[in-house]
Design goal:
Distance between the termini: 56 Å
CATH architecture of the largest domain: Alpha-Beta Horseshoe
Shape: globular
CATH class of the largest domain: Alpha Beta
Number of strands: 15
CATH superfamily of the largest domain: tm_1862 like domain
Strand content: 5-15%
Radius of gyration: 25 Å
Helix content: 40-55%
Number of domains: 2
């Protein structure tokens, strides 16, 4: 039996949980050092002094090292890359345990990642089977087998770069995410995060799914789109209800499914066999009138629809999307008529983006009945994708910018992304004000603000603070479940610093809590026990 330590930050991490489940199924033990990263979680509120004040880094390192792991693993994306390196350095100050970095950033920038002295092993490509093989070798021989496919190893003789291993062909072979490793640090009951497929209906040039598609083909890893069966997904959700009393499920696939047959079966079975509100992401071309009606009947609480851009040229030629503005208008019309709550995603700061497009976005949003949020994501250039190369080719990015992208030295998409020009930021935030207000303002008022250009005066106010305040207000008015959950998670985290069992109680449904209490009580006395007590009492 090998022991594997994981670290994660910010929120629930399905990748880590699936790796942990695979290791446990193979007979190994795991532990998670989870950092809620208050005020530095890359989701809503980033306030550096408060993040440092509430930091739990040293305590988490001590917790994982006390577990005496044989190896420590990080699942790395560009946004958490610097945090992972920081944690790895802290580990190396106290232990020589080997450290593995895997995930999309390790796969897109392997030379950059393995170049850091605190990273001993690199996992390139999918890791669920590779990490189990690594743990098996550590259990058997006490040292890692440096010939394992999917890994790069630092050895005395130099760097060993092994080829990628084939991807998992049948995703039903993946175990359900191991929520046990996070249930004492995160409220699983009120927000269960799931990923049931790989790949997407699109290969947008700004998204790392486009990198995956090319990488998998180049390395003969397997099919770009792979999905778990409906039966497998339903069983996972039923198990989640049984174990944690789950009240809300977020299926964080790029789209629920690329298959109409899969969608039909899932939405027919889900309300009867699972029956809790759920959230999905949806492509405009998928949002037919029938599909939207099925979503409503199945209990879909929130459909996150990717509009991204309303400039047809940018959409087709730069970000490589295959939907039109008419598809987007038809999609929101169908969602409104079906009564499905939804949010519209837009990207600010795209290459060649014009002010006219941002204004068109305001007109698009005006008067939408069930739109509860206009989600503005800032363009963040990612390593290994077409949009980054395009921006470099036309002079938007420099070689230094490309270096910063690989090393994680840029802002994240929830803040200002790769937009560095301060005047540009202020201009874009002027429009963010209108987008944020769109779900709660009457159509005439929103368009009036746009046409009279009132929003332009917003640049002279404390923009960030006002946007946060509006975001909170709109979330309450429109009952945006995820936004409210994210806000409440700050309160839960602060409470848990005093009440160490808070999350355990939250994640233990009443029937399981009752079973736990009963199992902790002494067994009822037998008949002979009772007779002995009666006899003893009589003799007194």
């Amino acid at each position: 039996m090998a022991r594997v330590g994981f670290f994660a930050m910010g929120a629930d991490n399905v990748s880590v949980e699936v790796l942990s489940a695979a290791l446990k199924n193979a007979g190994h033990e795991t532990i998670l050092g989870f950092d809620r990263a208050l005020f530095g979680d890359l989701m809503y509120y980033t306030i550096a002094p408060l993040y440092r004040l509430f930091s739990t880094k040293k305590r988490l390192v001590r917790k994982v090292l006390d577990f005496q792991p044989d190896v420590i693993a990080f699942s790395v994306i560009v946004d958490n890359y610097k945090w992972c390196l920081d944690m790895a350095r802290e580990i190396k100050r106290h232990s020589s345990v080997p450290i593995v970095f895997g995930g999309i950033h390790a796969t897109t920038c392997p030379e950059e990642v393995i170049g850091h002295p605190e990273v001993d092993i690199l996992c390139v490509g999918e890791g669920s089977e590779s990490l189990v093989e690594l743990a098996d070798g550590l259990e058997k021989n006490g040292v890692a087998d440096t010939r394992l496919k999917g890994f790069w190893f630092k050895t005395k003789e130099g760097l060993v770069r092994n080829p990628c291993r084939p991807g998992l062909r049948n995703l039903d072979d993946l175990p359900a995410p191991d929520k046990e490793i996070i249930k004492d640090s995160w409220n699983v009951r009120d927000y269960y995060l799931a990923v049931t497929s790989r790949g997407c209906i699109e290969k947008c040039s700004f998204c790392q799914q486009s990198f995956y598609a090319e990488f998998e083909q180049r390395n003969n890893i397997g099919a770009y789109v792979r999905e778990q069966s409906v039966d497998r997904v339903i069983k996972e959700f039923q198990r989640a209800k049984e174990l944690y009393g789950v009240r809300y499920i977020d299926i964080k696939n790029n789209v629920l499914s690329v298959s109409t047959k899969w969608q039909m079966e899932f939405m027919t079975r889900y309300p009867k066999e699972v029956g809790v509100p759920f959230r999905i992401m949806i492509h405009p071309k998928q949002a037919t009138a029938e599909y939207c009606r099925l979503l409503k009947a199945a209990g879909c609480d929130h459909a996150q629809i990717g509009i991204e851009s309303l400039d047809e040229y940018v959409k087709k030629n730069i970000i490589k999307r295959h939907d039109t503005n008419e598809d987007a208008r038809r999609a929101v019309k169908n969602l409104d008529e079906a009564g499905v709550k939804y949010s519209c995603d837009f990207i600010f700061g795209l290459p060649n983006q014009k002010i006219e497009e941002l204004a068109e976005g305001v007109r698009f949003l005006a008067g939408l009945k069930h739109c509860i949020r206009a989600s503005v994501f800032w363009m963040q250039y990612l390593p290994g994708v077409g949009a980054t190369q395009y921006a470099f080719n036309i002079g938007i990015l420099s070689k230094k910018d490309l270096e910063d992208i690989q090393t994680g030295n840029q802002d994240h998409y929830m803040s200002h992304g790769s937009v560095g020009d301060e005047e540009k930021k202020k201009e874009l935030k002027n429009f963010m004000l209108l987008y944020r207000l769109a779900p709660i303002l009457p159509r005439w008022m929103l368009l009036g603000m746009l046409n009279t250009k009132v929003h332009k005066w917003f640049r002279f106010l404390p923009q960030s603070a006002i946007l946060v305040a509006i975001d909170v207000f709109v979330s309450f008015i429109r009952r945006d479940y995820w936004a409210l959950y994210a806000m409440k998670s700050y309160w839960w985290e602060l409470r848990s610093r005093i009440d160490k069992n808070l999350f355990i109680r939250l994640n233990t449904p009443k029937h399981r809590a009752k079973q736990s209490v009963q199992s902790s009580l002494p067994p009822p006395p037998s008949c002979s026990d009772k007779n002995e007590k009666v006899a003893a009492g009589a003799s007194l």
